[in-house]
Design brief:
mainly beta; 22-stranded antiparallel barrel
Length: 611
């Protein structure tokens, strides 16, 4: 019986001893607990376990002393009638759970105590109260103000000199009072002389002039005086005529001209009244007996009422012409009343040109003076149609400017543009690309033509007229492409078909002509220019045969040619520049007039100075 009590007591003690340990340690973490025995937290765990064992023994002893007999009876024994409740079913022994956290999962960073919330500015909305415009047309731009000029670098005076391979001497100078736009005065001087490879193929052009301008509150006054002196030799000769003696005569032309005008300044006001008056004239002489003087007084009056314009223009053109065989008074009086209408999409000019010719020949004419412009593509392309007529005065100055190899006692007869009709388009195709293209049909009476007149008096040219109504049909096109402020390319092409009344050909007049050029601004120091001339075939006939209208004479053909020229200007400093110009780059012997070849390849250059 004693053994049974001892056995029961030992069983109870075992249960009390091992229960707390099982409550703190999980079966799955036995291996992890074993690994952490060597760490500092393990010492606390060992101390806790011994304390738990001591508490368990005290509880077991107390239970054994107080309830030894009762517990034994309740254990069941051999008495089935006793109460079945036992000590193991009633007492649960446990302790507080103390978790142990491994170092690997501990948080080792401090909390951020700063407020890092970004600042958001309050948004405000201001709606624009703008009316929607239904008009989609391009509005007119306001005028841009001129930038302030730098007075530290004056450029109102400029001088340029140079030399070339054809014994070329070149010089020009421009002088003015300064940048004052209200009052200006100045002058210029030019000189160019060259000597070709042929005998007496010499040419010299010289000019000098002064000018002045005054801009007042209401009116503007302009004036200028010019003098030109050009000289050359009659060096052309027929190479097949061996009997002709080569003894070129010398020719020169002296022209003194002056002009002045008074005009009302433009004012952007309704119903404006405008006017202008101009007086000009010149005296002309050559190396022989040819003399010519001219005075022209012209002006206009114009009244504007909204889109309606009405006015009158007129001129009095007085000319005296004389040579060794004649002395003429050749004058014209023109009156041109007109009325104009102008709107956003159209422009109409309607009027007449009344011309009274008096002097050695008297005639009275009334010609139309009408023009219509209509916008096909607004702001870009305009269609225009024009009908006009006039009397073209034949002058010695014009003939010598066209052909410096003219002879003496030229026949004087004014030509009449009976009716000139033209129609075409003009405008802008793209930014910087402007054009003008039109077809025309002109009816001309007494059309002047130049023909050769070689003989004992020298190899010169004379003037003949197509006595009748001549027809000139053709096409003219102009194109200007300004790619940028630094690149500009331009060109003009002309096609003409001549239907003459008596002459077989339009002597020395080409049917095709192309002129083109370019100006390129490389940078602030280098500028390049170039020009191209392509002229078609022309024909010439002796003067005696042209007067008798002999169709059996074979005309002399003057072939077409191409002339290419160019130049470079280098600005070394703000005041000093260097230039080079090259003419006839292709080095072809071109003949503008029969037996008068132009200069071959020639180059000249020099320096310029601004001050």
């Amino acid at each position: 019986m004693k053994l049974r009590y001892i056995y029961t007591l030992l069983t109870l003690i075992s249960l009390l001893y091992f229960a707390p340990a099982n409550a703190q340690t999980k079966p799955k973490t036995k291996k992890a607990a074993a690994k952490t025995v060597a760490k500092k937290p393990v010492k606390k765990a060992v101390k806790t376990a011994s304390t738990q064992k001591s508490d368990a023994r005290k509880i077991g002893d107390a239970v054994a002393k107080t309830n030894s007999s009762a517990d034994t009876a309740k254990s069941g024994g051999n008495n089935p009638n006793k109460n079945s409740n036992s000590l193991s079913e009633e007492i649960v022994v446990t302790t507080d759970y103390k978790p142990v956290l491994a170092d690997a999962v501990k948080i080792r960073r401090n909390p951020d105590l700063e407020d890092a919330t970004p600042y958001k500015a309050p948004l405000t909305y201001t709606p624009l109260d703008i009316r929607l415009e239904q008009n989609s047309d391009i509005r007119q731009l306001d005028a841009m103000k001129m930038p302030a000029q730098r007075d530290s670098v004056p450029t109102n005076n400029f001088v340029q000199v140079g030399l070339g391979n054809l014994k070329t001497t070149y010089g020009e100078g421009y002088f003015s009072t300064g940048p004052d736009e209200g009052l200006q005065a100045g002058g210029y001087i030019k000189h160019l002389a060259e000597q070709g490879s042929l005998y007496k193929q010499n040419e010299s052009t010289n000019s000098v002039g002064i000018f002045g301008k005054s801009v007042g509150t209401t009116n503007s006054l302009n004036g200028r005086i010019d003098y030109k002196y050009n000289s050359n030799y009659f060096y052309g000769f027929d190479p097949t005529d061996q009997s002709a003696a080569v003894n070129p005569g010398k020719q020169h032309f002296s022209v003194l001209s002056a002009e002045g005008d008074l005009a009302k300044n433009f004012a952007d006001v309704p119903n404006d009244f405008t006017y202008a008056l101009k007086l000009k004239g010149y005296t002309y002489s050559d190396a022989y007996d040819a003399r010519e003087s001219n005075v022209v007084l012209s002006g206009f009056l114009n009244e504007t009422v909204k889109q309606f314009y009405a006015g009158v223009a007129g001129s009095l053109d007085l000319t005296t012409q004389k040579d060794s065989l004649y002395n003429y008074n050749n004058s014209l009086l023109r009156i041109n009343p007109y009325i104009k209408f102008q709107g956003d999409m159209y422009k109409i000019d309607a009027g007449v040109n009344i011309v009274d010719q008096f002097g050695f020949s008297s005639n009275f004419y009334i010609f139309p003076a009408a023009k219509l412009e209509l916008q096909v593509i607004p702001k870009y392309v305009r269609l225009f149609v024009e009908a006009k007529g006039d009397v073209n005065k034949s002058t010695l100055l014009d003939f010598s400017t066209i052909n410096p190899f003219i002879g003496q006692n030229l026949v004087i007869k004014n030509s009449v543009d009976k009716l000139d009709l033209s129609a075409g388009l003009k405008g802008t195709l793209a930014p910087g690309l402007s054009f003008k293209a039109y077809i025309f049909r002109n009816s001309i009476k007494y059309m002047p033509l130049m023909v050769s007149n070689f003989g004992p008096g020298g190899n010169k040219f004379a003037v003949v007229y197509d006595n009748g109504d001549s027809r000139v049909n053709g096409f003219t096109g102009d194109l200007d492409y300004k790619a940028s402020d630094d690149v500009d390319v331009f060109g003009r092409v002309e096609f003409k078909d001549y239907q003459l009344a008596q002459q077989e050909q339009a002597w020395n007049l080409p049917k095709f002509k192309l002129t083109a050029g370019t100006a390129i601004h490389i940078n602030n120091k280098v500028d390049i220019t170039g020009s191209l001339l392509l002229r078609g075939t022309t024909y010439d006939i002796p003067y005696a045969d042209a007067l008798t209208y002999r169709s059996t004479v074979t005309p002399t053909t003057i072939g077409s040619f191409v002339d290419l020229s160019g130049g470079v200007n280098y600005k070394a400093t703000d005041k000093i520049s260097v230039f080079v110009k090259v003419n006839n780059i292709l080095d072809r012997t071109n003949e503008t007039w029969l037996y008068y070849p132009d200069y071959g390849f020639n180059i000249f250059g020099g320096v310029g100075f601004a001050f």
